[in-house]
């Protein structure tokens, strides 16, 4: 069982105990133990849950969680050491807690996230932030395929590059990629915004619905029913807001990893031509 480390700080009262950070070392603890501790925050109603219907509120005050005179330990943040590429780290979190993961992660890290802030200080495997509902997931390195797949909300920031199918079937999430993305990204993207500061692979936006795509670099090819669209002032303002939220919106900033800024004027916009919304036999070859 993971314990609070010596680096953790605590403030004690007669009936409460608050910790600033709880640390899990996955070389000695199991992912299941970490996730159980994270899920317990949501189960006990810490700070409320954001989700699709609202934004997450702040962490509850310690006195809000005292029951029967027994003190609760309320971590304000979690730190995960030596993740060693384990799968499903911080999956299914539904409380507004901050989670720092110090290393590379495997499949489905921060999947189904609903309100948490998850920072991966390394690379991420398949399906990072898959089906996210709200919150922030930041990958300091690169991400494998299907990043942000089916996600409904929140912000996913990949400071490096993302592999194929980035944003596949996205349903409202905002995704900002500091590098390149692979082929078939934003396939069947229904809603949300995908921002690519580098190049995009072939088949971008294939069978796209109403998602918006912004690409700064080259596009290998556009998928079925995806076309380039004009960049108006409203789109430049929207893009500037997304870049700023991702930490990439200040041109001229020193070129440290994840801190290079970009000008919205350098991007092009892509979206649906709306010709394949309804199936027609004469369009069968286009699907």
UniProtKB/TrEMBL annotation:
GO terms for molecular function: oxidoreductase activity. CDD domains: GXGXG. Signal peptide: none annotated. This is Glutamate synthase domain-containing protein 3.
């Amino acid at each position: 069982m993971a314990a609070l480390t010596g680096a953790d700080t605590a403030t004690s009262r007669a009936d409460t105990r608050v910790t600033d950070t709880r640390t899990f070392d996955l070389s000695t603890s199991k992912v299941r133990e970490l996730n159980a501790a994270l899920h317990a925050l949501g189960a006990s109603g810490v700070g409320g849950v954001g989700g699709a219907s609202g934004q997450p509120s702040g962490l509850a005050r310690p006195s809000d969680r005292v029951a029967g005179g027994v003190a609760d330990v309320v971590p304000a943040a979690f730190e995960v050491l030596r993740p060693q590429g384990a799968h499903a780290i911080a999956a299914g979190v539904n409380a507004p807690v901050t989670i720092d993961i110090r290393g590379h992660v495997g499949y489905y890290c921060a999947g189904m996230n609903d309100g948490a802030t998850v920072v991966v200080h390394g690379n991420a495997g398949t399906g990072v932030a898959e089906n996210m509902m709200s919150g922030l997931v930041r990958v300091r390195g690169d991400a494998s395929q299907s990043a942000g797949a089916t996600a409904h909300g929140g912000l996913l920031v990949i400071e490096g590059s993302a592999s194929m199918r980035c944003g596949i079937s996205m349903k409202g999430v905002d995704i900002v990629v500091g590098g390149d993305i692979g082929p078939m990204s934003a396939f069947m993207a229904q809603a949300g915004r995908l921002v690519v500061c580098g190049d995009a692979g072939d088949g971008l936006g294939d069978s796209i619905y109403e998602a918006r795509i912004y690409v700064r670099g080259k596009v290998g090819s556009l998928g079925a029913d995806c076309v380039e669209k004009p960049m108006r002032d409203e789109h430049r303002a929207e893009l500037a807001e997304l870049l700023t939220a991702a930490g990439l919106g200040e041109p001229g900033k020193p070129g440290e990893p994840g801190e290079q800024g970009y000008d919205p004027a350098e991007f092009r916009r892509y979206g649906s031509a709306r010709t394949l919304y309804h199936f027609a036999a004469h369009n069968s070859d286009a699907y």
